[in-house]
Amino acid sequence: MAVDDASHRIIGDLLAQRTGQQLTEGRRWRVSGALSGLFREFGIENVDQLACMLERPSEHRLATRVVEALLNNETYFFRDHSYFSVLSNQVLPDLARKRESTKRLRIWSAGCSTGQEALSLAMIFAEQPNRWKDWRIEILGTDVSNKAIETARNGRYTQFEIQRGISVAQMLNFFTEDEGHWQAADRIRAMIRFQQHNILDYPPAPGRFDLVMCRNVLLYFDPETRAKAFDRLASGIAADGWLMLGAGETVVGQTDKFKPSEFGSSLYSPIMGNVSRAEQRLRAAAC
Questions:
Q1: Element (H or E) spanning 59, and its range?
Q2: Distance between CA 122 and CA 118 in Å, rounded?
Q3: Which distant-in-sequence residues (6+ apart) come within 8 Å of 56 by Cβ?
Q4: End-to-end Cα spacing for the chain
Q5: Element of type H or E holding 154
Q6: Is residue 99 within 8 Å of 105, Cβ to Cβ?
């Protein structure tokens, strides 16, 4: 299934319009495999035929399915353990001190995929019941993929998925086996709300989040789109909050809305003087 330049451009434009992500040269190899199931389902013989179909205004469902198939939803529990160690030992204690008067923490997992990152966060809190007694913990998981969000809301994972990143003790403590799958316990799911959301849109709750985790999302954007994403993230984070990016991502040379923190290369704090007036109004309305 060869992808010619014209057909590739149509598919790439669709992905960029819907998600902001770029179908770069490095991602082209995924196209054939990612779309093979749709070819069989819709009786499509080649990519040129698919491109022609996508040009029709009536093919909304097919366009959505193509975008969903091309998104990279790779994730697993406690992905990059060192990051969660920094959260447990440095970031969360810092926020606990700052929010001691309200005993409320609001965390945004942006680009949460099928929910493992948000559930990993919930497990951290659940494993420290005395430390977080009487606290209100609110975790919001968002993703541009509706299919991924449906999986996250169900909190139901295969044997392969459940074994990636968590210990046997955590698996037995926070999940129950059900017909070959593992269901997340209500006590950790109760901390989390999932919703479909594009990171390039205004944040679901501007100015309210104490911690924003946006890992391995921005690397799929071109510089202009990445700068817009940083603007949106800046409008959704508290003045003394934290932003955590992935290992291959940085704010340096990308935006003037955040600066590196003393807690490590993956963590950043907002530069409030560089938040626009429009974003400041959004903050004021949200508080």
A1: none
A2: 6
A3: none
A4: 52
A5: helix 146-154
A6: yes
Using a pLDDT cut of 90, give the percent of the chain over it: 63
Q: Please, is 40 exposed, middle or buried when counting C-beta atoms within 10 Å of its C-beta (0-12, 13-18, 19+)?
A: exposed
Model confidence over 55-69: pLDDT tens digits? Answer: 887 778 888 888 888
β-partners of residue 212 are 108, 243
Helix axes 60-70, 47-54, angle to 10 degrees: 130
Structure tokens at 168: 């046997």
In angstroms, the CA 211 to CA 92 distance is 9
CA distance 239 to 250: 19
> Does the predicted TM-score (pTM) go above 0.90?
no
Q: Which residues contact 55 (CB under 8 A, 6 or more apart)?
A: 10
- Residue pLDDT, tens place only, 138-190: 999 999 999 999 999 999 999 999 999 999 999 999 999 988 899 999 999 99
Q: Could you give the residue ranges of the DSSP H alpha helices within 194-254?
A: 223-235
**Please, what sign has the CA dihedral across residues 16, 18, 21, 23?**
negative
How does DSSP classify residue 72?
-
